[in-house]
Amino acid sequence: MFARRLLIAAVAAFFAFPALAQDKFITVASTTSTQDSGLFGHILPLFKKATGIDVKVVAQGTGQALDTGRRGDADVVFVHAKSAEEKFLSEGFGVKRLPVMYNDFILIGPKNDPAGVKGTKDIVKALTAIKDKGASFISRGDRSGTHIAEIKLWTIAGIDIGKDKGPWYKEVGQGMGAALNIASASNAYVLSDRGTWLSFKNRGDLEIVVEGDKRLFNQYGVMLVNPAKHPTVKAKLGQQFIDWLISPEGQAAIANYKVNGEQLFYPNAHDRDA
Amino acid sequence: MDPSVSAFQLLLTGDPALLGIVQLSLIVSMSAVGVATLVGVPIGACIALTHFPGRTTVIVVFNALMGLPPVVAGLAVFLLLSRSGPLGPLGLLFTPTAMVFAQVVLVTPIIAALTRQTIEDLWGEYRDELTAMNVGAVRRVGTLIWDGRFSLITIVLAGFGRAAAEVGAIIIVGGNIDGFTRTMTTAIALETSKGDIPLAIGLGVVLMAIVVLVNALAWAIGRAARQYAG
User: What is the pTM of this model?
Assistant: First the structure.
């Protein structure tokens, strides 16, 4: 009867899955910022056109994305926390780290600016003021690239955030967009990458309060997961993706991605020290 | 998907990306419910009709697993299917098959526990008759499942509701990959995190409409079948 027919259809659909899977694909563990900003939606179709390779992006925080690589569940990692990437390399999980592009972090805050930080270019002074005034601050709290950058900035400010945090400091343990949503709903300060902010739609009363400090630089790097550690890694296809990202064609595709006329990421594969 | 238009417009104009998402949601949840039914109904019926040491414990465990948090199921399946896990060589993590796997883990206890209750109640009604007719154990199970089929449809629908509604398990094992493992619920989670609340709401309403539609269809078919069966 109905249940039986449903069953047959379900079982048939179950076994039809292998037919749905494309042959030429790689899995890339990347960050929420590259996905939420819409960058992948722009560059991946161009890559597919050039090479015929499908790229499956699993968007996670940088820490989690690197762990996905460590377990061998991704072929390529494309993240933004140089210190964590170098650790990944030194553990032997990555083949080589290549710089791809950069943008910057910005401090987002409510328009009425309860900590009085608007106008300063000094991110360290701004964070110190937020702490001193006990103004609400949303932290990603998820070992993402942005979270790692935030902790580094607190350290530069001479604040041990693990010890000095009060009720004003809320770790939400979620992606960039989710953290922005929470900041928007609670009128709090939050550190964001510029790309996610530019494409974020639920801004409420939030705006950029601090930008342009060179300590807010945000570099993205790409690495092939080491096939010597995980033989299942699709080294050839993964390398093709990396080669394309740093090729003039890939770099131009990154530069050409704009939201409302504003460029989100700046290619810098030529800068070997980045 | 073009975020400036609503989910309804996308659905009405047959946007391939949205249709793909809807299709994948249905395929994954229906497959999971199908497998869970094949596994859960016999298990539930057997528990209902047999006596063995530790039966009460098994019943309590199944009843408790009805409340298994999807993220826990997702995490367990994730650890199993990861390349570094015991089933890693299959390469199933971040595929629709992994999502079906996780939902089977979620839905099977629901179907088994509710089936056990239904069959046990029916057994109370049929016991004398079936014993008098001297029916063997296997046929006894078959007869009770057949006679309880209308209740079982409701149980299967409860399982489908659970599968179609959850996001915690499939987002972990599927990875929410665009065009591959993105379903209605993971798309809603993503659009919410992008701050595109209107599109997220639209997708939510579409999802609920689909669930209502599936239930209405099942109800109508069930009613027709019941009338036919007299």
Answer: 0.86
